[in-house]
Design brief:
Helices cover about 25% and strands about 30% of the residues. The chain has a 7-stranded mixed β-sheet with strand order 5-2-1-6-7-8-9. Strands 10, 11, 12, 13, 14 and 15 form a 6-stranded antiparallel β-sheet that branches. Strands 3-4 form a two-stranded antiparallel ribbon. The protein is of the alpha/beta class. It contains 8 helices and 15 strands. A hairpin with a 2-residue loop joins strand 12 (about 260-265) and strand 13 (about 270-275).
Amino acid sequence: MRLVFMGTPEIALPVLKAVSSRHEVVAVYTRPDAYSGRGRELAQSAIKKEASKLGIPVIQPLNFKDGKNISVLQDLQPEVIVVVAYGIILPKAVLEIPRLGCINVHFSVLPRHRGASPVAGAILAGDRFTGVSIMLMETGVDTGPILSISQLPVFDWDTTLSLGQRLSGISGGLIIDVLEAWNRREIILRPQNEAAATYSGIIHKEDGLISWNEEAALIWRKARAYHPWPGIYTTWRGKMLKLLSVEPVSHHSQEKPGSVISFGGTSDMNVGVVTGKGILGIKKIQLEGKKEVLTADFIRGQRDFIGSVLPD
């Protein structure tokens, strides 16, 4: 099958590798190179690097508002366009180009967690299961009819990184099966239930700032959902304090939210912060400008940390 692939981050790699091994990928679309890191160096996306290894032409438009970009895509004459976390909106003129449509691989069980951050959204919501949805795209955001869904459990230790890797890992095999069945017209499209739809928007750095009036369980889910970025953090003595390893603990305190307390626990989990509901145990911590350390080691050098009140 003659196809075009559109995607940007590492999580999209298994689908690109899968389709390129079974079909003729005439072009890969990915977002333009962007400056990143402390050195602000121009960086290529994971998809661009892989496409270059595979010898597939790479195209990087800013968007499809320019008719020239749409004409270039039309000239490629794809039978289908496969999209995974591309990050650029496809207008109707693009969706109508391939005879088999544009097929999107989305990392949630739609209609839950439509939008830009479905993996983090599942963790934040406390979902016990999530999955990979493959849908036929339409102009709405992740609203198209479903071709296939496969589910995976969400474990208590899952982060956006680990859960995303597991979902990504099964996506390559799924897209191959779906493409073959869809080409043979063996799939009956299933409309999404709009009444059950939820959305997970773009995550910003400030989302990681902790409000100690929230319950410990929610802050714990945020720590997992925002790993590896932006993490969760507070401030202490005017410096950013990153909480790198946390979990709710079964202890109680009458202190106000934000109060740092010590409690009887394991040697590496005996410091916590009072929240709006429950106590959040802190195992590992990193003060701005310092290396990450166990909290037990941190308090040996910062004895007044216990008893302090972290800002909300």
